[in-house]
Design goal:
The protein starts with a strand and ends in an 11-residue tail after the last helix. It is built from 15 helices and 24 strands. It is of the alpha/beta class. Strand 16 and strand 17 (279-284) form a beta hairpin. The strands form 6 sheets. It has a 4-stranded mixed beta sheet with strand order 22-23-1-24. It has a 4-stranded mixed beta sheet with strand order 2-15-17-16. The longest helix is centred in the middle third of the chain and has 13 residues, at 232-244. It has helices at 22-31, 48-59, 85-88, 98-105, 124-132, 163-174, 189-200, 232-244, 260-269, 306-313, 334-339, 369-380, 392-395, 401-407, 421-429; strands at 2-7, 13-17, 39-42, 63-67, 70-74, 82-83, 107-111, 136-139, 143-147, 155-157, 179-183, 204-206, 212-216, 224-227, 248-252, 271-275, 279-284, 293-294, 319-323, 343-347, 350-354, 362-365, 385-389, 411-416. Bound molecules: uridine-diphosphate-N-acetylglucosamine.
């Protein structure tokens, strides 16, 4: 098991190619359950969550083959109906197999993912939506069991535009009888990507990317070869890393139109942001100043960028207020940031970020994926040596993060974590420890 060691102060300069979107890859991998033909997915990132999803699908009986950035999946033979706790607890997004299994087999059992360290992560909207399609669902202490002799299209209004619920219901509705109208659907670019892929598999989905999606059920789906979109959160994280170091950094292979609010906020802080067709460049332009941010469903400011912006705003002139509206417990890393020299006070779901701070040396722990990346970002601007442990969280969603930062000029390295062996092994194996099982 490794930790990250950063010596801050080097401006990040150069270009970095952005990987495929984690949150698209995981869902499109799950969509392969819906057909017995091969599904070939290109631009899949080499990250731990993709490995876990491969294991989940392998456990269900799909063949999974990984070559040169693409993954080929095929649900040809008999398919299992059960996603076990040992895997679901490693990655909460495994709940996404529920809808496809129900549509393909008429039954599914998925271990209860439970809460996690960024909030309760409820699944009531997934369940209610699938029930409205005709499924009978038993929610037990340990698992969710779903059955449906037939799924029938329905009008489903979501109380909240949940990303996961929209995706689960959309996938189940593809093979339902008749028409499903999903209101207050999530509008994230990854939803559009999943819908595009499903449509290329023979589904009939319209309205993806808007609040009302219409899904006409079809009898069967077929195989596909599909390239997923770039990861807008990874791109945003690199841009913030470039900004905080006063660098001149370009992210390439991105879709800037999917990053509107993040780019706007970087400009408001005072950075010069130049947008090309598939590139974004950032550089300093005078002293950065504090701003207010509220996380919201897309196209609002993404909750997944909140932590990195908190690191950035800690160094800006003036006070900033960050309001977290999506997850209850997403300020868990504030203590760690303050340990490095930040001054952030939490008032319920508002974080008051006092600016003009300097980060110094310190040893911190990554509490979850995005907060872990934000601590690395803070370390890149620190005046002393920063050590970040528990980096398995970061590895869940960022491909070769330290290597790519090194190429941009960062003084950063992986080093063995010399914590007592017992603890390190427990954590390395230990996605069965409930409070580190976040799946973002
Ligand atoms: C997905 C993303 C995650 C991102 C989040 C919001 C993946 C793998 N993860 O997570 O990176 O931060 O979208 O953009 O794609 N909720 C309920 N009941 C439900 C479902 C959700 O109350 O049935 C609540 C959640 O507790 C949370 C909020 O709705 O407070 C948003 O959750 P959701 O949009 O479902 O996020 P995820 O799909 O889990």
């Amino acid at each position: 098991m490794n930790k990250i060691i950063v010596r801050g102060g080097n401006p990040l300069v150069g270009e970095v190619k952005i990987s495929g979107a984690k949150n698209s890859a995981l869902k499109i991998m799950a969509a392969s359950i819906l057909t017995s033909e091969p599904v070939v997915i290109g631009n899949v990132p080499y990250i731990r969550d993709v490995s876990v999803m491969s294991e989940v699908l392998g456990e269900l009986g799909l063949s999974v083959e990984r070559t040169n950035g693409s993954v080929t999946l095929q649900a040809k033979g008999p398919i299992g109906m059960e996603a076990p706790y040992q895997l679901v607890s490693q990655m909460r997004a495994s709940i996404i197999v529920l809808g496809p299994l129900l549509a393909r087999l008429g039954r599914a059992r998925v271990a209860m993912p439970g809460g996690c360290n960024i909030g309760l992560r409820k699944i009531d909207l997934h369940i209610r939506g699938l029930e409205m399609l005709g499924a009978k669902i038993d929610v037990g202490q340990a698992s969710i069991e779903a059955r449906a002799d037939v799924l029938v299209g329905a009008n489903i209004p979501l109380d909240f535009p949940s990303v996961g619920a929209t995706e689960n219901i959309m996938m189940a509705a593809c093979l339902a009888r008749g028409t499903t109208v999903l209101d207050n659907a999530a509008r994230e670019p990854e939803i559009v990507d999943l819908a595009d892929c499903l449509n290329q598999m023979g589904a009939c989905i319209s309205g993806a990317g808007t609040s009302t999606m219409i899904i006409e059920g079809v009898d069967r789906l077929h195989g596909v070869s599909f390239n997923i979109i770039p990861d807008r959160i990874e791109a945003g994280t690199f841009l913030v890393a470039g900004a905080i170091t006063g660098g001149d950094l370009t992210v390439t292979s991105v879709k800037p139109e999917q990053m509107g609010m993040v780019l706007k906020k970087l400009e408001q802080i005072g950075y010069k942001v130049d947008v090309g067709d598939s590139t974004v460049n950032i550089k300093g332009a005078g002293g950065p100043c504090g701003i207010n941010i509220s996380t919201l469903p897309h196209p609002g400011f993404p909750t997944d960028m909140q932590a990195s912006f908190m690191s950035l705003l800690s160094l800006a002139e003036g006070t900033s207020i960050i309001t977290e509206n999506i997850f209850e417990n997403r300020f868990s890393f504030v203590q760690e940031l303050n340990h490095l020299g930040g001054r952030v006070n939490i008032e319920r779901h508002h974080a008051v970020v006092i600016g003009k701070r300097t980060f110094g040396a310190g040893t911190v722990k990554a509490p979850d994926l995005r907060a872990g990346a934000a601590l690395v970002v803070a370390g890149l601007a620190a005046g002393g040596l920063v050590e970040i442990s528990d980096i398995h969280h970061i590895e869940r969603g960022y491909e070769n993060f330290t290597g790519r930062l090194q190429v941009l000029g960062a003084d950063i390295e992986l080093a063995p974590d010399e914590r007592p062996l017992e603890l390190a092994v427990k954590e390395e194996e230990g996605y069965d420890i409930p409070d580190i099982s976040a799946g973002l």
